[in-house]
Amino acid sequence: MKTQPARKPAKGQQPYSDVQNKRTKKLRSKATPPTPPNISPSSSKPGLGTGGVMFRNLCIEKIRKDYPGIKPRTDYDLSALSERQFKGSPAEIYAQLDEELTIDAEACGYEFIMEAATAYMDSYVEPTGVKPGYSAYFDDEKFVFVRPIPDSKYSMRLFPGSISAAEYCLDFVDSATGEPVNSPFEFELWGLPNPDMPWLSFPICGQLRSIERAHGINQKDILPGAEKFVLRDGQTCALVRPGKRSLRFTVPVRKIEAPAVVDDMEVVDLPQFVGP
User: Fold this and answer.
1) Rounded distance, CA 22 to CA 68, Å?
2) Cys-Cys link to 233, which of 57, 80, 83, 166 (CB 3.0-4.6 A)?
3) What does the alpha-carbon distance between residue 197 and residue 246 come to, in Å, rounded to a whole number?
4) Model's pTM, two decimal places?
C-alpha cells in the first residue's frame, strides 16, 4: 500500500512544538527577518482570526516553563529562547544569546534585528500543537475529546489547533493519569477517503506521521509527552494495531460563529448535498 508523508502545514501556519531547529551560521537575508519556526503569525492585527493570540504572550509563557530563572532582556531574547533549546546556567545561556545576537547583527544590522524581533512579538498567531493544560490561552475543554483505546491502558486525545487552517491535533495519554505519552504501542495512523467530504481527506489511503517525525526527529529523541499528529477538521482516520481490531474515527468540525451582519441580498435556493 502506497503511503504519503504527513500533511505539510498550510502557508503561514506552522506547528507550535518542541522541534529543535539547529542553527547554521550562514548569513540571513535582509529581506526577511529571522522568525521562530514554532509559531507563524496569522496576522499583525488583533482580532483577525478567531483563535488569534499575541505571540509575545505565548513566548513568555513558554520560557517560564522551559527556562526557570531566565528573564529575557530584549525581544530578541524572547524570540531566540522560544525558537531554540539552550543549555547551561543562566550566565551561560545569556552568553550564548549575546553570541547569537552578535552574529545576526553583523549579518543584518543591529537595529533591523531588534525591530524585526519586536514586530514579531507583537504579531498575532493561531498556533497548532499546544497541548491541553500547557497554555492558559488554549484551555477550552469543550473542544478536547479523549477516547479509550480497547485492549490498552492508553487513550487517544483530540485537541484543537489553528481554526483558520482547520487543524486538529491527536496525541496519546495514559488513561489513568491523563499524562501525554509518545507512541506507547506499535501502530499506524492512516488518513482515509471520506465520500461526504472528499476535499478534506485523502483521495487514497495515506499513512500519517507525527509532527516531530516529519521534521526529522528520531523517535527516541522526541521530548517525553511531546509527540502529536496534525489532522484536519472533518478528516477520517484509522488507527491500525497489529493483531487487534483497527479504530476508525472522524475529526470533529468546528463551527465558526457567523458575524452579526445582515446582508441585503437575495438567497439562491440550492441543495447542500447532491448525489445518490
Assistant:
1) 22
2) 166
3) 22
4) 0.66
Q: Tell me: the pLDDT tens digits for 165-193? A: 889 999 999 999 999 999 999 999 999 88
Planar angle of CA 107, 108, 114, nearest 5 degrees: 125
Beta bridge partners of 41: 125
Phi, psi of 242 (to 5 degrees): -60, 130
CB 161 within 8 A of CB 167: yes
| Angstrom distance (rounded) from CA 16 to CA 128 | 5
Residue in the structure block whose three cell numbers are 478567531: 50
- pLDDT value at residue 51: 62
What residue has cell string 484536519? 232
